[in-house]
Predict the 3D structure of the following.
Amino acid sequence: MISLVKAAVGGLTVICRTHGHQQAPLHSYLKICAAGLKTFPVTPDYSNVVLPEKPKLKFLNKVPNLKQAKKERKKLRDIQGPAMASNTFTCGQYAIVAMGGGYLHWGHIEMMRLTINRKIDPHTTFARWRISAPYKPITRKGLGQRMGGGKGAIDHYVTPVRSGRLIVELGGKVELGEIEHVLIQVAKKLPFPAKVMSRESLEEMHRKQKEMEENNQNPWTFKQIAQGNMMGIRKVLSPFDLRNHGRFTGKFHFPGRV
């Protein structure tokens, strides 16, 4: 059986002949044309993005403006536990999030400011601090001094950071792939573990933590053992452990613990 097949290919009319069940050259030609087609992602819409007048990170003072500097104790609670402030996004889309506690020196802050301001395009990207300037005094004694003699003199100031706090926030008419390598370069130089995250990835992390708590199959969780005072464990637990249910040990965070 011989029949004629008429089709339009690329604006041209092609007529081919089919013999029974055999495929004509037209079918193979159409197959080759479709093989080169690609599906590109939709271009993001930046119509509602408004860039500020000063898109770059501002300079932070090395020493706070105080009339009289006062010495303080260590107060390790400043870096222990989860962050209660600056733990959500405000105006940006990407940020460097601390995965543990620690102290930021002025050198770390200046490193972040210089690196990000050099690498970003101020016409399409802006950056904002989510931390304050160094304000906590750190004392130190000189070399060769004997023990005693009171607390040493103030050597420098630091900024305490808790787990889950946003350090730097970026946004604008830019995708994550364009600035991710810059943020990773900065996050590796911080004195505590940090991670580059977007709004979606931060929400996904919180959702997974909540889902893990709801679907936990182990009936003996840290919270139930502590509240039930099993084997008198409350005698050796601190209020910090009772409040955070064993998810934090000092400045370290255990994301897999329920």
About this structure: Residues 1-20 have pLDDT under 50 and may be disordered. The first strand starts at residue 2 and ends at 9.
